[in-house]
Amino acid sequence: MKLEKYYENLDILHVNTTPHRAYYIPRNKQQLPRCQYLNSLDWQFKFYNNPYEVDESFAQGVLENCDLIPVPSSLNMLGYDKHLYANVKGPIPFIPPYVPDENPTGAYVKSFELTSEQVKLRNFLNFEGVDSAFYVWINGEFVGYSQVAHATSEFEITKYVHAGGNVLAVLVLKYSDGTFLEDQDKFRMFGIFRDVYIVQRPQEHIRDFTVRQNVAQSMKQVDVNIEIEWDGKPQNLIVEVSYKNEVVYEGNDTAFKIKNPKLWNAEEPNLYTLKLIGDNEIIQIEIGFKKVEIKNAVLYINGKTVKIKGTNRHDSSAYTGAAISRDQLLADLKTMKENNINAIRTSHYPNSPWAYEMYSKYGFYVMAEADIETHNTCEIYGGGHLYNSKIELVDDYTFGMLCHDPRFYEALLDRIKACVIREKNSPCVFMYSLGNESGFGPNLEKCAQWIKNFDPTALIHYESSVYQKVGYNNNLTNIDVYSRMYISPDDVRAYCEKDVVAKPIVLCEYSHAMGNSNGDLERYYQTMLEFDTYMGGFIWEWNDHAIYMGKEANGKDKYFYGGDFKDFPNAGNFCLDGLLHPDRKPKTNLLEFKNVHRPIRAKLQDHKIWLTNQQDFVNVKDYYTIVVTQYIDNAEVKTQTYDSFDLKPHEQKELLFEFTEHKAVDNYLIISYYTKTATNLIPFNYNVGFDQIILNKVETKIAKALGGRKVTVTETDTKFIVENDTFIANFDKLKCTLEKFTKDNVTYLAKPLDYNIFRAATDNDRKIIAEWKKAGYNRTVIKMLDSSYEEVKNKTMIKFKFLITAVFLQAIMEVETEYTITNKGDIQVSIHAKKDPVFPELPRFGVRLFLDKSFQDIQYKAYGPYESYIDKHNYCIYSEYKDKVADMYEDYIVPQEHGSRYGATYLKLSNGTHQVEVTSKDFCFNVSNFTQEQLFQTSHNFKLKEEDFVTMCIDYKNAGIGSSSCGQAKLYEPYAITDTDITFKFELLFN
Q1: Of 472, 348, 338, 313, which Cα lies nearest the Cα of 399?
Q2: Which residues contact 38 (CB under 8 A, 6 or more apart)?
Q3: DSSP strand E in 665-718: where?
Q4: Is residue 707's pLDDT more than 90?
Q5: CA–CA separation, 354 vs 310, rounded Å?
Q6: Which of 298, 299, 401, 818 is deepest in the core (most CB within 10 A)?
Q7: What stretches of 648-780 adopt beta strand conformation (E)?
Q8: Nearest to 508 by CA among 465, 463, 459, 545
Q9: Spatial separation of the C-alpha atoms in residues 805 and 815, rounded to whole Å
Q10: What is the distance, to the nearest Å, from the Cα of residue 225 to the centroid of all Cα atoms in its chain?
Q11: Of 94, 184, 198, residue with least CA distance to 131
């Protein structure tokens, strides 16, 4: 098919589209929407490898041998084209404005009916999202062209339609010159993936309107000015504003005042209904009044300092791709609210316009981001950019080249207008973002100035303004915040402690949620509480991107990521970086986020309980019930409920609760916070968070068996055999370990005890795993230096001195281990290790026991009931728990370290008849049906196969989780195992 190559012409972005406008669906005088959705399951469709293959008859709506498909949809999810996940490396050659001639093309045909009454009106065809560029014909006549994947394109089709049947033909190209501005980190899909509809309008109508507002500093009055742009002659107009069905203003004047307004914020999303009532049409939207400003480098909303506790959100589903329905979004928003998320960055493009209505209704601060990312410019040959978290402006080579190329200015401005103009009336939007990771330069400087000219009150964000092209000085006048990605809490602190802080700092991406992650959230939160100039940030990101591929033969769901489709280029599993798994099941990462960001916090100070309201606008007494329970020896002894605890925003106050000081046993308080009433998304009596105050914590002691017949010790060149009529313990002298243990004719160990300094690397270990492997941590061997035994009273001591090393390497550490065995077969283990400091920090240090597969029941005391680590246990409670080994498994798509329990004092593993018990003063443990070796070597969770034994790791320490899969290079040192002198003692009891 012969096409005008608009898709390779930087001077043509749209043909015959209407100017950008605010989003609304007009109504007739009977309040019925004048909107005809073309969304359906029966669009005719045919896929082509390139537009040249399309027959010329397609413009007439002729498609032979075609399929029927749903619209909206992502074509890749329907089996067309191929899946490709790319991040920084673009999917096509970097030769803008040219794109490959083999350009996947989708031909769509849809028949629709219009009544004679409808065609008397003016008709406008709207596409809310088409990736990446498209041509439109109606009844064989060319209507127009548009490009910008994630924004609305509207065509007036009045002269092309008639009463009765009409035929719409849409040709969608996967690649256009717009693709060079759309290098977002996601699966690259194409097609008509958002709503398509026709709106009917009177001959003269309101084309666009802007609700300007100025909330007084007293917050007691708002001045409203509605700017109207008419298409045709202005008509009679009545403006009506109501709050909960009570009219607060009605009149012909578009400038008016509202006294004592109910202001909008994320905690109390008060909305007013605005009606613009003309002679032949009504436009009705929900508006909100708020005052957003920055004073002295601090963000204020409605006069209050506000903290952003947000997440980045892509349009992404493992089942529907980029095509997201209202129900899907509503489910996500409910989960966000349940987990104390109050803000969304629309990374890295505008969402569906109705999404902002939902964000406003349910209460989310939204950073509205334009459909711009040119990260691919870093990857051209000879290109790149420098990154340094310590400095504010970084010399950039090619990163910002399109921001300096005047040919791209109009395209960049068009995308920013498409974002700002459409969402200008959305209450949820508190800040606009120029886009993401595109460097900086004069093009974006002028775009920022356009926003300020359009709305002087608007706040502008752009993280890549920290990148500066060599030989150019950035003009940052219109960038209102200092934005960074993935810098550490210490770096944030350094910024906030400067002598002069000119702008508030926001982390538009931080604490990368890839795999088992987010081990640093509490540190970020404490830093945010300390500095008003740190306004918070947005987790990267909301959910894992993956493609559902059915079920494996073993019944497991299969999810594929980058590279699984033989796609090139691809960024592997870097798309699995969300707080949710692909099936929308929360990771423990999200549970940690929830409790770190709980709305109320408690602490014990001077033997008093102090509560702080962490919220910015609401009083605790109006929204929450507080329940305090004391546990002594892990049993509930007292509970008290507070239904109306008066605690204003940011206020701290004592909570009166008489608790018992008991020093002999475990003694702690659980202070839980529940919703007092149901809200739009959260039910009544929902637990929004908790605090645990530990008053006393005791070491667990094994109830040791007494007596027992004297043991005999048999020594050979390679073995120590310790035995009596009750048990037999075999020790391997060469491997310096307990090889076999049998008691009362039960053999407990399936394999010898193993000294363990490795773990299946988490995604956050990806930067240090090379060092760990280089250091041989994954392939250690034992070299025995000395072995001996000693008998004292009713105990036998087996002593080993050995080196842990690896082939072609020096010794990693020298270890002395002593096994003390009682005459009843109880074993005390003492390990003293001296690590060569030349070697890197350890993943873990401890031992592994391999037990019979029947040992599946577990009881323990530690932080639980979920996986917990030194830096990731705020969502856990220190207590006693019972569980199953299989249920300790955390199902990450890429298998990795998981399921540890931190702060343990004992664990018991049982098969119902016999058990293995471990105690120590303070240790970590993990029990699993999979070995760390299998987890480390397996690419996908559905490929795992249970071992025929149970692995029990007993760790002196397991390194923290952190979030360094992106950005930060190292784990925070107090959470790392940097010890060079280690002493670890624990007791084993087999019975």
Answers
A1: 472
A2: 71, 110, 112, 168, 196, 197, 198
A3: 667-675, 687-696, 712-715
A4: no
A5: 20
A6: 299
A7: 652-655, 667-675, 687-696, 712-715, 719-723, 727-732, 737-743, 746-747, 749-756
A8: 463
A9: 11
A10: 38
A11: 184
Which residue is it, tokens 């980045």? 312
pLDDT, tens digit, for every residue of 237-287?
999 999 999 999 999 999 999 999 999 999 999 999 999 999 999 999 999
pLDDT of 705: 66
Q: Which of 281, 445, 509, 739 is catalytic?
A: 509
Q: How many helices (H) and strands (E) does the chain have?
A: 12, 61
- Looking at residue 41, its pLDDT comes to 97
Q: Where are the beta strands (DSSP E) in 306-399?
A: 308-312, 343-345, 365-369, 394-396
Give CA–CA dist 416/583, Å, rounded: 33
Residues whose CB falls within 8 Å of the CB of residue 530, separated by 6 or more in sequence, listed in order: 493, 496
As a whole-number percent, the residues of the chain with pLDDT over 90 amount to: 96
Parallel, antiparallel or unpaired: strands 186-187 and 130-131: unpaired
What pTM value is reported for the model? Answer: 0.97
Q: Measuring CA to CA, which residue among 282, 260, 262 is closest to residue 272?
A: 262
The torsion of the CA quartet 16, 21, 25, 30, rounded to 10 degrees, works out to -100
Q: How far apart are CA 822 and CA 793, in angstroms?
A: 9
Instruction: Give one DSSP letter per residue of 438-469, joined into a string.
Output: ----HHHHHHHHHHHHH-TT--EE-GGGGEEE
C-alpha span between 867 and 869 (Å, rounded): 7
Which one is catalytic: 182, 369, 373, 437? 437
**Residue linked to tokens 């700092």:** 505
| Cβ atoms 433, 369 nearer than 8 A | yes
Residue 883 CA to residue 133 CA, distance in Å, equals 54
Whether 715 is catalytic: no
- Provide the 10 A C-beta neighbour count for residue 948: 10
* Cα–Cα nearest to 463, from 486, 485, 493: 485
Active site residue 293: no
- For residues 496 and 471, is the Cβ–Cβ distance under 8 A? no
Tell me the sheet residues that pair with 485: 509
The residue with greater pLDDT, 328 or 391, is 328
- 23's tokens: 């989003």
Residues 588 and 515: their CA atoms lie apart, in Å, by: 10
Contact 813/841 with Cβ under 8 angstroms?
Answer: no
- Kind plus residue range of the DSSP H or E element containing 120: helix 116-120
Residue 906, beta-bridge partner list: 861, 919
Token couple for 927: 């029990």
